[in-house]
């Protein structure tokens, strides 16, 4: 049985459309390590959740990236929602000429086994500038360039499928991205930042779960994962 590891009911609702009854929520609050990208956070969480559950787990780490703020709140989105709040994120962004933003989701799957490292084999560990181990490998150039020289928007846009994060336990990574704009809150559906995120003229909170899934960061990542998982 696959466990979808989250404390967030909104994520579970959206995952059901792709994973159906083969998925069970595991309400486990894994350690969200301090890191400036979602892949590192999700991969770490998946390993911790797998060790806890001893069953295949899928972790979902998401964030809202506001271009005018160089991608803030990004990996700190949950903390900012709890402290600043969604309404005030809108009011801060309102002051900016450029209100473009994006959502990104990283799904990290771990079942204690290895994977074929497609599209490119991963046979090395990289080191970050400060000498600490960098668990993010795979997909060649995109990964290599994922450094300080890349803008948050570039980073968010440069999402690729089928990355494998190595380290102790192998973790398979699936990413999803959606561009949009920060607007005054509208709509009653969804969760989190959905009322202030507009895509093609409609906020995510104005969409049904099906409509949101069809275009959203999470829907895209789940579709990739679902396709891979069913073939497995
Ligand atoms: P788990 O970590 O337990 O899964 P969480 O709600 O803390 O639940 P994240 O850290 O991934 O999940 O979420 C970061 C923030 O982004 C948090 O404030 C969410 O409410 C928000 N968020 C995530 N996905 C979203 C979506 O599809 N629409 C709107 N807000 C979203
Ligand atoms: Na979280």
Automatic annotation (TrEMBL):
GO molecular function terms attached to this record: nucleoside triphosphate diphosphatase activity
Region annotation Disordered: where it falls in the sequence: 114-164
A family per Pfam: Ham1p_like
Biological process annotations from GO: nucleoside triphosphate catabolic process
Segments of skewed composition (Basic and acidic residues): 121-156
InterPro entries on file: ITPase-like_fam, RdgB/HAM1
Alphabetically ordered keywords of this record: Hydrolase
A single GO cellular-component term on record: cytoplasm
Similarity section: Belongs to the HAM1 NTPase family.
Name of the protein: DITPase
Organism: Halorientalis persicus
């Amino acid at each position: 049985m696959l466990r979808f590891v989250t404390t967030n009911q909104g994520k579970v609702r959206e995952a059901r459309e792709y994973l159906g009854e083969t998925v069970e929520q595991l309400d486990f609050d894994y350690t969200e390590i301090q890191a400036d990208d979602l892949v590192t956070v999700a991969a770490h969480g998946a390993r911790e959740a797998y060790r806890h559950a001893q069953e295949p787990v899928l972790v979902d780490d998401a964030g809202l990236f506001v271009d005018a703020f160089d991608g803030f709140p990004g990996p700190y989105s949950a903390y900012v929602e709890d402290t600043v709040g969604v309404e005030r994120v809108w009011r801060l962004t309102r002051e900016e000429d450029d209100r473009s933003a994006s959502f990104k989701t990283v799904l990290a799957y771990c079942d204690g086994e290895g994977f074929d490292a497609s599209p490119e084999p991963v046979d090395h560990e990289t080191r970050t500038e400060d000498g600490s181990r960098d668990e993010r490998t795979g997909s060649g150039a995109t990964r290599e360039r994922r450094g300080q020289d890349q803008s948050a928007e570039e980073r968010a846009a440069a999402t690729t499928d089928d990355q494998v994060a190595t380290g102790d336990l192998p973790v398979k990574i699936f990413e999803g991205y959606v561009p949009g704009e920060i607007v005054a809150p509208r709509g009653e559906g969804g969760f989190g930042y959905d009322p202030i995120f507009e895509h093609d003229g409609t906020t995510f909170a104005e969409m049904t779960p099906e409509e949101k899934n069809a275009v959203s960061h999470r829907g895209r990542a789940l579709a990739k994962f679902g396709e891979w998982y069913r073939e497995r």
